[in-house]
Amino acid sequence: TLKLMLAYSTKSLTMGLSESVVLQGGTLIVGVVLGPSSVTHFNLAYRVYNGVRQLVDWILEPFRSTLSRIAVGSRGAHRRMIETLSFATMTAIVAVTIVWLLGSRFLVERWVGEYMPAAEIAAVAAFLLAGMTIETLHSPWVMAADTIGKPGAFLLPQILWACLSVPLGLYLAGRWGIVGVAIGMASPLLVL
Known about the structure:
By secondary structure, the protein is mainly α.
């Protein structure tokens, strides 16, 4: 039993660590390459991203135990519930992203003031949200794999995301600043 639990935990931990490399790596890259004031600007955009990411968790997490119970009784019902959750999360993310794209500069200027680089902060948040929109295509399926006892089913793409985003973020930081880092974090999701 311990061996089985350790195998599950290791895969789950590795998924979480690789995601943290990407998500926290952006701030680290900005700090190392661009300096502290850029970290402040990047983190303002990241707060928007993190708030929307919380929305995804609020939609998905309440269903985790229900999905486990359903999976035992009916794989078909399990799949239908995951498809419904996928639709719900994608609808929420797309709606929030569209609202952000339409009003981001105005919202950022009101939030942080006119002396901050509002257009740049808004662009960073837009790229991070675009990446999250792509990631949301598989987020419910990652949870589904966990609920049927197959954690790590998406481990390889998760590790590749981390391995690609760091060098890409470092390279693009030098070209486009904090916007480049956001592009570096989001763009690997297009191919994974």
